[in-house]
Amino acid sequence: MTAAPASPHRSVLSRPARAGAVVVASVLGLGVALCAPAAQAASASGGSTAAVTRAGIDPALTAGRGARVDFLEQEAEHAATNGSVIAADRTAYTLAAEASGRSAVKLAPGQYVEFTLPKDANAITVRYSLPDAANGGGLTAPLDVTVNGKDRRQLSATSQYSWLYNQYPFSNDPKAGLLHPDWWITECGCVPADTTPAPAISTPFRPGHMYDEQRLLLGRTYKAGDKVRIALPAGSKAPWAAIDLLDSQLVAAPHVELKAVNVLALGADPTGRRDSADAIDRAVQLAKLLHLPVYLPPGVFQVNRHLVVDDVTLIGAGSWYTVLKGSQQTLSAPAPDGSVHTGVGLYGKDAAQGGSRNVHLSGFAIEGDVRERIDTDQVNGIGGAFSDSSIEGLYIHHTKVGIWLDGPMKNLRITGNQIADQIADGINFHTGVADSVIRDNFLRNTGDDGIALWSEKTEDARTVIDHNTVQSPTLANAIAVYGGTDTTVSNNLVADPVREGSGLHAGSRFGAEPFTGYLHFTDNTTVRAGTYELNWNIGLGAIWFEVLDRDIDADVKVTGDHYLDSTYNAIMAVAEWGVKDQYKLSNLAFKDVRIDGTGTSVLSARVAGSASFQNVVARNVGAVGVNNCGTFHFTPAGSEFSVADLGGNSGGGTTGDWLASWELPNTITCDDRPPVVAPPAPSNW
Q1: Which of 6, 391, 586, 645 has the highest CB neighbour number within 10 Å of its CB?
Q2: Helix (H), strand (E) at residue 289
Q3: Distance in angstroms (rounded) separating the CA atoms of residues 100 and 555
Q4: pLDDT at 48 (0 to 100)
């Protein structure tokens, strides 16, 4: 297989030099505690209400956007507890920053958080964090689950898949020194290897990826109003547990596919004690001969390698019932693609071999065993190339990338999947993926871009990314587009990116082919986006455009988006410092956009080029509406970035409307690192 690195990262970005004396150098620290005050959890004696949120806010504020899912989300900080509510904070490397809504509840042994079911439910998902072991590797400490004070069950909780440290590609060792002492770091504002005396770097250095989630079938249906209590048992070997949220749902009975090849008949073991990979392979071959689907009944099937599929349908009993689970295996020698491990995954044939076609995967879970980031490793949940195919209703957990596809390939539909707790990306279309759809997928806690299109060498074309929810990517962006032609990003809900990326992103970077045709961002909502960019020491926009490898001059339209409670800017246009005088951003148009709350400006421009704005309405803006630095030459003619007012732009500025006449077309209003003003929580418009 072709090697499948996650989004080539961000490890060393050229740091923009500080601008001249005309710049107001309000230098921001390494993080920002920016949130409206967290809703206080009800006391243990005061009871709780069944407060339901989406992306940590009132669902009315996100109506019609995001994945259409069958569970309801409840934040722990709004539930009853005798634990401690973690104060809302967006500073990277903290439990608060990586929590949904930027707050959680911390339990000591013997403490609990209790949720009131908003609807009937027979299944829950608990998002939690446990501390790492002293020397890394994680620890395991079950959580107690009771309903109405009885029916006690244990939720398997572990931090073995959490806690990464240090610089890219990260370490599992909390005591490790710098992986790259020759890289510039913000902690000292220096290159440690070139600095005398050498700076002291405390450990653990840059801890992250702190949360995990586990699912639990409750064994019966409980009613709306019943109380689900999550407790860290007295005497637990874990000194604490942080509970972030609870998802509850009513799971249907297992699906039965009668007219199919049942893997049990070919020797698969549903108890998980014996490896079932060969038996499933035999079922696939028989199903192809008989022109029947393969049925994966309820059970846990041990699979420790790739299952290569082509021209076949695999149907499970539902992702709560059918699980393909494997342990990561070390190869005796590196594979030709650079892999040093293998593990559970469904793979299409390599694109160089023509790829796979007519593959349909649905209704099962993939539980991996990936605990470290090795970009050459093929340890993804779904990989290879699939044309004329579909991936639907899967739950993918603890793999490197949930779905990483290497084209060229075409006509793939990825719909209704849940992808959680990945070491790297959630979904990545890499190289020449055409005429395909990513819709109604729910992604949480990816270690790199949630959803990415990467047009390396061959452009991705005519892709639609629609009605997805991406929450809490610990690194990089929720949705990112790197080159390509005729791309639509619509009706998505993204929230809580943590560092070195943001909510929505388009970049001419990572060697991608140019943007051609159109790129449309339409009717998306971002919540608490706009993160701190570690390498540049600046804040990013909730949506941001980066010029690095070439101009961005396609037809780029942003229409109907809502940017809520942005940590820094709502919109950023930026060029890498080393090429700021070579490339530009143009043909960028914003229309019918609402902005509710920014820590700094509506628009931050740090690039040459232009953009137009029409009916962009803002409120609760923390700084001057347009922070226009251009390319930092501060010419008498004004900034190198021009802004066109097409009418209807109003509200939000500290000096009147955010887009005021005195800012047009290219007044220099540059504040290199403006102070952050925390906005109030977003509300109905």
Answers
A1: 6
A2: helix 277-290
A3: 34
A4: 55
- Which residue is it, tokens 């690195």? 5
Q: Where are the beta strands (DSSP E) in 356-422?
A: 356-357, 360-362, 365-367, 382-383, 386-387, 389-392, 395-397, 403-406, 409-410, 412-415, 418-420
The arithmetic mean of pLDDT across residues 442-457, rounded, is 98
Q: What is the tens place of the pLDDT at every residue in 338-392?
A: 999 999 999 999 999 999 999 999 999 999 999 999 999 999 999 999 999 999 9
Q: What is the CA radius of gyration of the chain?
A: 25
Say whether pLDDT at 4 is over 80.
no
Burial class (CB in 10 A: 0-12, 13-18, 19+), 191: middle
Measured CA to CA, the distance from residue 75 to residue 38 in angstroms comes to: 11
Per the CB < 8 A criterion, the answer to whether 77 and 104 are in contact is yes
Average pLDDT, integer, range 503-522: 98
State the Cα–Cα distance between residues 488 and 434, nearest whole angstrom: 12
The first and second tokens of residue 548, run together, are: 């690095």
> Pairing between strand 569-575 and 603-606?
parallel
Q: Which two tokens stand for residue 329?
A: 């295996």
Give dist(CA 445, CA 244) in Å, integer. Answer: 12
Please, what is the end-to-end C-alpha distance for the chain in angstroms? 50
Distance CA 101, CA 59 (A): 13
Counting beta carbons within 10 angstroms of the beta carbon of residue 637, is it exposed (0 to 12), middle (13 to 18) or buried (19 or more)? exposed
Residues in CB range of 265: below 8 A, 6 or more apart: 283
Q: Is 13 exposed, middle or buried (0-12, 13-18, 19+ CB in 10 A)?
A: buried
Residue keyed to tokens 């107690």: 144
Residue with tokens 């608990």: 126
pTM: 0.94
Greatest alpha-carbon pair distance for the chain in Å reads 79
